[in-house]
Design goal:
275 residues, 5 helices, 26% helix, 32% strand, globular, disordered N terminus
Amino acid sequence: MKIRRWVSCLCVAALVICMAGCSDSKDEDSAPASDEGSVQNEEESSQKTDVDLSDVYAAYAVQVQNDQDSIDNYDWQRDVSSDLVKIQRQTALCDIDGDGVPELFLMEASDKYEASLHIYRYNDGEVSEMEYTMDSDEKALTDVQAAAGVNYVVFTRKTGEFCIYHTRGDESITYCLNTYRVKDGKIELLSRVDNVYGPSKDNPDEISDVYHRNGKKISEKMGKTLFRKAFKDIDQAILFSGYDDTSIWSCFDTESALSMSSEKMIKKLEKGAEN
C-alpha cells in the first residue's frame, strides 16, 4: 500500500508539471478562452459608483478588528515551495465586480484545524457577507490543518472573471477550478472544472485520471486546456496558500499578491479612512 501511495504521489507530481499553465503552446482541442460572464463584467466595469472610499475603509477596518482573533488563528497558511514555511497573509482587498469599490477577503479559522474564506462587500453604508458555493457539498473555500492540507489560489482573470483554484486529497488528488461572476452583489458560479487523479475505483492497482466540467466528463486534453487557459489569464492574485511551484504558483509573483496580515490590513484601512 505504501509503495502504491508513493507511486501515486510521483505520478501526481509529473502530472502537475505537465499541467503548468504558463506555456504559450496551443492545444488542438477547442475550448472557450474563458467562461461565460466576460460581457457582463465589461458592462459592470463601466458603471463605477461614487461611494466615498474613506467610509468603505472605515467600515472594513471595524470588520477586520472584530474578526482579528479568528483571522490570526489561521496560522498554518503556507508559503509557495515549502510545506514548512508559514505565512501571515490572511486578508485582502480586491474589486471583483468592477464597480470601483473593493471587496474584503478574510480567511478565518473556526477552530484549530479548519479555516474558511469569507468575502464581504460594502453597500448603502453597511458591510455584508457575500454568499458563494464551491460545489454541491461545500459552502466556502476551506483549508484544513490535516494531511497535505489544501493548496489554493484566489484570483481574477484578465477576461474579468473571479476564480478559485484549489487542490486537496491523499491517495487521490482532486484539482478544482471554479469560475464566478459577480452581479448585483451576488457571486454566481459559472463553471467548475475538476480533475481527480489517483487509484481507480474499479481497480486500485491502476491509476485513473478523469476530468469533468460542470459534472460532465470531458477529455483529458480538454480538461488540461481549460486549466492552462485560466492559469495564463491570471490578472491579480488575491490570496494563496501552497507549496507547489510547478503549476499555477509559477504563473504569478507571490509578492505582488494582494494578501497581507490582519495587522497590516487594519493599518491600511485606517489610513484609507483618514484620506
